[in-house]
Amino acid sequence: MSGVLILLAATAALAQTEPPEAMQFARRAYESVRAGRSQEAIADLRRAAGIAPSNALYRSALGGVLEREGQIEPAIEAFSEAARLAPGNTTILFKLGGLRAHAGQWEAAREPLVQILSVEPAHAGAEALLETVSLELGAVLARSKRFRAGQLLAQDTAKRYPRSAPVHVMLGLFESRNQRNIDAVSAYRRAVELAPDSEDGHTGFAIALSAAGMAKEARAAFEAAAAKFPSSGAVRQAFGVFLAQLHETGEESAEAAATMLRSALALDPRLAEAHYQLGVLALSEGGAARAAEHLNAALAGGLDDARVHYAAARALRRLGKTAEADQHLRAFQERKQAGEAGP
Predict the structure, then answer these.
(1) Tens digits of per-residue pLDDT, 124-144?
(2) Per-domain boundaries in the chain
(3) DSSP reduced 3-state for 338
(4) What secondary structure does DSSP assign to 92-136, as a single string?
(5) Which CATH class is domain 145-230?
(6) Which of 63, 138, 286, 300 has the highest local Cβ count within 10 Å?
(7) What are the CA-CA distances from residue 46 to residues 60, 65, 66, 82, 117 (Å)?
(8) Cα three-residue angle 233-246-209, rounded to 5 degrees
């Protein structure tokens, strides 16, 4: 028997307390679903819910039929109302969380899952889904630069899943974004301990060490990551950025940074940050044409931020392309006004 039919059959137990007309509509909906007449079942369940508005089972059964018909948003509304009417029903709450996750409503999906685990900590389905939902929500918060909210989410999730490497990678990311560099080092170190083959963990650990001012340790971590993941352009890109930062302080040669960045692009020509860094290095050495080429590649790769436009404006102005330089300068100013960091 399908989940929808089980929900509908469950209403039979309410025959002594429910209005007879509501039960009649519910029973007819049950038969309609069995016969494949979903639209009739939906109509009858709406009627039953209208007659007995405090009955959560009518709402959840309605949600189940709507879901089966692919009407996800109306199904979410039905299960939301069912959960309001029966806040202790973990079956309804789990279904609501799953549907919200299916719809990409990550923040809303967490609410019923957390509620389930507060009363039933051993609910394996809710525990597994909550981890996935929390990681997806973290990615959304990172993309939208909601770093403080992301940090709070990551800290809570790390407490719930102390042995999850992806969760500690997420925690390290948000600790870094909030300039909590020592805490970020600890989070990434834990991620690597839990998953020694985690590329994100090793790369994040090295970056966090660099941000914490531990240059010697960071170099060792980058070298270890590059050796462990020799086919990863992303690792070499991060290593190249680190070397470029050392070059700015006179602790490393420009050629060492450029060589690492070029090796990253050899593995993955789409790495926009590597193109940007090579563009800046070329510009510092007077290679305006080469700089403009790399900066255009960075923009084409999606790195459309203030610092890229500023560098492109400088390169194009040196090439005598004043009109194009002015366009990039305007783009730089627009992004600055939107709150981006400057060059």
Answers:
(1) 999 999 999 999 999 999 999
(2) 1-86, 145-230, 232-343
(3) coil
(4) HHHHHHHHHHHTT-HHHHHHHHHHHHHH-TT-HHHHHHHHHHHHH
(5) mainly alpha
(6) 63
(7) 11, 11, 11, 13, 30
(8) 70
User: Average of pLDDT values for 85-106?
Assistant: 96
Three-state DSSP at 222 gives: helix
Quick one: tokens of 121? 């900590």
Q: Which amino acid does the sequence have at 52?
A: A
Q: Among 331, 297, 325, which Cα is nearest to 312's?
A: 325
Question: How far is 242 from 224, CA to CA, in rounded Å?
Answer: 14
Q: Residue 275 and residue 84: Cα distance in Å, rounded?
A: 52
> Is domain 232-343 in CATH 1.50.10.150, yes or no?
no
CA distance 95 to 97: 5
Type of residue at 265: L
Tokens describing residue 156: 């809570």
Q: Are 40 and 62 in contact (CB under 8 A)?
A: no
Name the residue among 210, 214, 209, 265 with its Cα closest to residue 235. Answer: 265
Q: Which CATH superfamily is domain 1-86 in?
A: Tetratricopeptide repeat domain (1.25.40.10)
Rg (CA), the chain: 28
